[in-house]
Amino acid sequence: MATNVSGPIQAVVFDLDDTLYLQETFLDAAWNVVAEEAARGSDVDAARWRERLTYFSDLGSDKGGIIDRAVAELAPRVLIADLVDTFKSFRPVSLDLMPGVRESLAQLRANVPIGLITDGDVEIQMAKLSALGLTDSFDVVVLSDQAGREFRKPSPAPFLQALDALGLEAPNVVYVGDRPDKDVLGAHGVGMRAYRVRTGEYRATEGEIPPWREASNVVEAISELLGLIGS
Ligand SMILES: [Mg+2]
Q: What is the mean pLDDT of the segment spanning 107-135?
């Protein structure tokens, strides 16, 4: 449905994690804080906690149970719930965008409206935007968890919400994201063109359907999109 459309590009909507910044930078900072807390409540030092938490996280941050597995291995009497609370309440002070992203977004926004769709705990995602200095960088921001976890990408709901807020039709909007299973499938499902970027945890993962286009990072994607927009 989406692969044949070629209307003018009237807006570009982005994913956040692993598209505009590396999620690993957020997770590493969060695991540091959890490791310190776990060390205070056990005979195992923070470095060892950090090593195991990072190890399980690297096996797949989406799989969950990272804290549970580290606790089971290192100190089964430590209370998992307390560490989960520590993780959930972690708020980064600052996070780095990938190189050139701020300038590229500003250049694109000078030509077309830009939006953001992000999954995850609403307060954490808002804190990431603040730590990245992106709070006022988009015309439209959709936090899919505000409607409920069942409306996370690839649900059509957050994509339709963004289109509605932009007042545009799907064929005229390009969606840029890193994950084939969430970003490419979700955008394709509502008829948007999906631009895949090969950054972050899923950079080597192949998807079920080919994206409209792909690039090695978001700055390259924006550069190409600017050429297509005719700026
Ligand atoms: Mg992502």
A: 97
